[in-house]
Known about the structure:
This protein is an alpha/beta fold. It has helices spanning 12-24, 40-54, 70-79, 93-102, 108-121, 126-131, and strands at 3-8, 30-34, 60-64, 85-89. It has a four-stranded parallel sheet with strand order 2-1-3-4, with helices on both faces.
Amino acid sequence: MIGVLIASHGALAMELQKTAEKIIGPQPQVATLSTSGHPRKQLRDDVERLIASLDSGDGVLVMVDSPGGTPANICLEAARGKDKVEVLAGVNLPMLMCLIDRKDQETVHSLAQSAVSAGKATIMNLTETINGNGTKDG
């Protein structure tokens, strides 16, 4: 089973996990990390420890809130050189649900692609989608 680590600024990671688990129940091998208010060295050590604890041999997918931020930078550093660890940016609930649903069915690399596809597919302007013509007025 692939492990999942969600890292973010503030409480976003924890709230995403709590929301996903309200929908589909508690999940093994899923952990969160908030980078707010912690020294960089401690965060790097925490990420490395979490990756090691989540990896049962199938790998770990790390999801961060935004590219270029502290969570992304620290997680990329910790993942460097680890073949079965991938870091995805732009975490959202559909991505997380996809990961949780398929984490025991795919490889870490294919699951990363599935999660990115799920995230992209669910980002839309619903007003335009409902109106069908791309304008708010109809």
